[in-house]
C-alpha cells in the first residue's frame, strides 16, 4: 500500500462559490468548439438568442472544479477526465452571471489510478440551473487502499439491435485549440511536447468534454429534431482518447420513452471512445 497524496479531508466540504460572467460570444464559441455547423444557426447567431447547448453547463463549473483539484494535493499534469454527468434544471440564458459551488463527493482507489468525484451546483441568482458530477482520474495516485468507486447503473446498449440513429461527424485538426477557448487551457490539448511528456506521443488529444459536447449535439439532432432543450440530463464515460481530426460516430437507442442509450466511436479505428452513456428526455 502506498502513501496517499490526495487530501481526503476535502471530501464533502463545499468550497466558496465562484462567479462566472458570460456573453453571447462565449455561448457561440462553446457551440463552435463542440462542432456546431451553420445549419445550427439558432446556437451560433445572437439574432436568434442565441440558444445555449445544455452541455454548456461544464463551462461555468470548470474553474471552481479546477480550483478544488488544485487543493487536492494531486499532480494536475497527470489528470485525465474520466466521465461527466450533467442535469439541467432550467435552460441557460444567452448571457448573464452564474455562481457555482464545487465539492469533492468521494476519492476512490483503482490501483494505478485515484478517482476523484467532483460535484457542482450552478445557480443564476437563486435559481438552480445545472448540477454536474465529474470523474477525474489522477494517474499514478492509486494503490492507497481506498474504496473502489460506486458502480453506475447506466442503460445498456442493445447489442443485437441496430441504433435508432447514427450521426457521423469529422472533427477538425484545430478542434481542441477551438474548444480550449471555453475555459480548459490544459497544454495536453495544445502542446505536442507536453503531450509526449505525459504519455501521448501521438500529439495533443481532444478534450473529453469536447467529445461529450459532440455527443449531446448528436443526441439532440438524432432524437429531438435538433432541439437540445429537450435533453434533461446526460452522462458519458470517456474510455479512450480522441485526436483532433478523428471522425466521431454517435449511435443512440431509445430504450424507454424518456431515455436514450448512447455510445460514441472513432470511425477510423472502429473504436468505442465513449461508453456507459445515456440521455434523459423531457416529457
Q: If you had to describe this structure to a student in words, what would you say it looks like?
A:
The chain is an alpha+beta fold. It has a single domain (8-281), classed as Hotdog Thioesterase (Thiol Ester Dehydrase, Chain A, Roll). It is 18% helix and 35% strand. The longest helix has 16 residues, at 208-223. The chain starts with 17 loop residues before the first strand and ends with a strand.
The radius of gyration is 18 Å
Strand order of the largest sheet: 1-3-4-5-2-7-10-9-8-6
Shape: globular
**N-C termini distance:** 49 Å
| Helix count, DSSP H or I runs of 4 or more residues | 5
Mean pLDDT: 94
CATH class value: Alpha Beta
Query: Could you say which structural class the secondary elements and strand pairing correspond to?
Result: alpha+beta
Instruction: Note poorly predicted spans.
Output: none
Largest sheet: 10 strands, antiparallel
CATH homologous superfamily caption = Hotdog Thioesterase
Summed up, the domain count is 1
Question: Topology as H/E string?
Answer: EHHEEEEEHHHEEEE
CATH topology: Thiol Ester Dehydrase, Chain A
From the structure above, extract its key features.
283 residues, alpha+beta, Thiol Ester Dehydrase, Chain A, 10-stranded antiparallel sheet, 5 helices, 10 strands
Protein topology:
Blueprint: E1 18-22, H1 24-33, H2 58-71, E2 79-88, E3 96-110, E4 113-124, E5 127-139, E6 165-170, H3 175-179, H4 192-197, H5 208-223, E7 231-238, E8 247-256, E9 259-266, E10 271-281
Antiparallel strand pairs: 1-3, 2-5, 2-7, 3-4, 4-5, 6-8, 7-10, 8-9, 9-10
Amino acid at each position: 500500500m502506498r502513501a496517499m497524496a490526495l487530501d481526503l479531508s476535502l471530501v464533502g466540504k463545499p468550497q466558496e462559490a465562484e462567479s462566472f460572467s458570460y456573453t453571447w460570444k462565449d455561448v457561440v464559441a462553446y457551440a463552435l468548439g463542440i462542432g456546431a455547423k451553420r445549419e445550427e444557426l439558432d446556437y451560433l447567431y445572437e439574432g436568434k438568442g442565441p440558444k445555449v447547448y445544455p452541455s454548456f453547463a461544464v463551462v461555468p463549473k470548470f474553474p471552481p472544479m479546477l480550483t478544488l483539484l488544485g487543493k487536492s494535493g494531486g499532480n494536475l499534469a497527470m489528470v485525465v477526465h474520466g466521465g461527466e454527468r450533467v442535469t439541467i434544471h432550467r435552460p441557460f440564458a444567452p448571457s448573464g452571471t452564474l455562481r457555482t459551488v464545487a465539492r469533492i463527493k468521494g476519492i476512490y482507489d483503482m490501483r494505478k489510478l485515484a478517482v476523484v468525484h467532483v460535484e457542482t451546483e450552478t445557480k443564476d441568482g437563486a435559481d438552480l440551473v445545472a448540477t454536474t458530477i465529474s470523474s477525474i482520474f489522477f494517474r499514478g495516485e492509486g494503490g492507497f487502499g481506498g474504496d473502489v468507486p460506486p458502480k453506475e447503473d447506466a442503460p445498456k446498449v442493445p447489442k443485437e439491435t441496430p441504433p435508432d440513429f447514427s450521426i457521423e461527424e469529422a472533427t477538425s485538426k484545430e478542434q481542441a485549440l477551438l474548444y480550449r477557448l471555453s475555459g480548459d487551457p490544459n497544454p495536453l490539448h495544445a502542446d505536442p511536447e507536453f503531450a509526449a511528456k505525459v504519455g501521448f506521443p501521438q500529439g495533443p488529444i481532444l478534450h473529453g468534454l469536447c467529445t461529450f459536447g459532440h455527443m449531446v449535439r448528436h443526441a439532440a439532432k438524432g432524437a429531438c429534431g435538433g432541439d437540445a432543450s429537450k435533453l434533461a440530463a446526460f452522462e458519458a464515460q470517456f474510455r479512450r482518447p480522441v485526436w483532433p481530426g478523428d471522425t466521431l460516430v454517435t449511435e443512440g437507442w431509445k430504450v424507454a420513452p424518456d431515455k436514450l442509450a448512447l455510445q460514441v466511436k472513432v470511425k477510423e479505428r472502429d473504436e468505442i471512445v465513449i461508453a456507459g452513456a445515456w440521455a434523459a428526455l423531457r416529457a
